[in-house]
Amino acid sequence: MVAQNGAEALALSVKQSSPVRVRPAEETPSGLYFLSNLDQNIAVIVQTIYCFKSDARGNDDAFETLREGLARALVHYYPLAGRLTISGEGKLIMECTGEGAVLVEAEAECELEEIGDIAKPDPKMLGKLVYNVPGAKNILEIPPLVAQVTKFKCGGFILGLAMNHCMFDGVGAMEFVNSWAECARGDPLSVPPSLDRTILKARDPPRIDNPHLEFAEIPDVSDTASLYASDPLVYRSFFFDPARLARVKSETGLDKCTTFEALAGFVWRARTAALALKPEQKAKLLFAVDGRSRFEPPLPKGYFGNGIVLTNSVCEAGELTGSPLGHAVELVQGAVKMVMDGYMRSAIDYFETTRARPSLAATLLLTTWSRLSFHTTDFGWGEPKQSGPVALPEKEVVLFLSHGQERRSINVLLGLPESAMRAFEELMDI
């Protein structure tokens, strides 16, 4: 296997043991557990890995420590021990069966350092560090939490997680993993989960007060489908240190914009140009805004579920690429400002009425993990040496991931058809 930078990549060999079920350590409630309409929108499996190595502690007891910690954590997060099913209304709902999460022990025939920098996406290699449920035909056949503990010859180990996004967003996932780590260390939970998702029920009757272009189907007049079909998809990561981020912000010409707004506009405009979209092609930007503090009243601390809402901006490709960067950034700012309580309640009601899911035609779906503190997780081996996603869930997804000292740098991860990626790389030179 050859790495994308042309260097020889590690031919990772991993031997998996038989999976075990980890049930909650105590009896937990049974029955149906409500999932909100914000949970319904993103029912995809998200795979992440955490690399641990401690000079003071080997990996002999890593599997057992994590297994016992998980059993204790599932007492608090008991819906994760259940199984997804479809409700009478045709929506996803969790059946709290107590069957448990799935945990697998594995061994790698190499040292942890040989994995290299996981910021450079390599789904083929990193995919061996997460367990894929054999024969599963859809998400209903995959437990909401599947974990693999892979031990390395050097005494380090990697925790690979496959978690269903309908159970939590990035903030909720981070809080769960950190709670699991606290249980593994024998500490009390610093942020106990708030389990009641009915606070985000649709209104009765539903009220759609806002346009919701996030769900709009956009005709692919540029025939990008042919480009994706004929050109191999390649993944790259682009590193933006504080100095480079400052250059992007100054390029906007705006008096005021956040790092996220500047980088989002920069990447959206560059990707649109790299795909050579026709000038009249409508291009859509989708990104998640954390609504926890924007709801009225705000969601409770530790809210266990999706508190994010997708916002959007739609612009003709010619206008986007032919205007200064500041124009793209102002479109991003407008999308951020839209996300208030009324907009979010309207989005919840829109799904209730239409059952529509956001369309990804001619779309860039931006997801940002730059504010998530996954790097603080400590199961007893110290903080992870590195952590991040195994792969991007859809070809339209671009991920912003914090990196480096004080997390002030950002890695931009994405996949594009090979010819478009060459054009994109040139546009990233700033």
From TrEMBL:
Record keywords: Acyltransferase, Transferase
Q: Has UniProt tagged this entry with the keyword Acyltransferase?
A: yes
Give TM regions: none
Extract the InterPro entries matched here: CAT-like_dom_sf, Plant_Fungal_Acyltransferase
Q: Name one GO molecular function term.
A: acyltransferase activity, transferring groups other than amino-acyl groups
Pfam family membership, one: Transferase
Its family?
Answer: Belongs to the plant acyltransferase family.
This chain belongs to which protein, by name? Omega-hydroxypalmitate O-feruloyl transferase
Q: Which organism is it from?
A: Acorus calamus
